[in-house]
Amino acid sequence: MKMERWLGRVAVVTGASSGIGAACAMYLADNGMLVVGLARRKERIEALRETLKPEAGQRLHAIQCDVRKEQEIVDAFKRIESEFGPVAVLVNNAGIMRGSDLVSEGNSSDLRDTIDTNVLAVAYCTREAFRAMREHGGDGHVFLINSIAGHNFSNVPGLSWNLYPPSKYAMTAMTEVYRQEFLKYNTKVKVTVSCCGKLTKRFLRSYECFVVCRV
């Protein structure tokens, strides 16, 4: 789909400091959107500007935000609307995978971090973005960067899945819930899920990863 309708509008990308999130943020800024990246290490997002053309780099902004913390998300979205305008596109990219087994003793922190980042942060960010979209014409697009582990996974020698697959299965279900709720509230907001496998650094650098969920 073409980007003309999104030119100059605001996009928020979570986990934008590296990987898929960085690629999405750069792609959107390079194609005319005003992009706000959320990450704990905002200096990494700021460094991405140097890799873009000057005009595109000026459209990429960073806000420090730990998406495991609801209040930081709420505050970030309030700041975004105040400083940049209403959110039109949200890319829920932030996600983690911890290395402990589900049955390991003392793994409570890993369990909480995974659910807080992979599930609750998506719910909080989408809630805040949808509110802004609904208040400003009911138009927008929400993307969920999911994983093939949200549909099927198998034993991998030496790998501990922890709550990663359950959290990605949750994201798969959330996508359908959002589709139904966006219709329920009579909006034009769309939802798209992208289920990625293992990606190479070249793939990420080329922005190709965002083609699968291009607005």
Automatic annotation (TrEMBL):
It comes from the Eukaryota. Keywords: Oxidoreductase. SUPFAM superfamilies: NAD(P)-binding Rossmann-fold domains (SSF51735). GO terms for molecular function: oxidoreductase activity, acting on the CH-OH group of donors, NAD or NADP as acceptor. Belongs to the short-chain dehydrogenases/reductases (SDR) family. This is Dehydrogenase/reductase SDR family member 11.
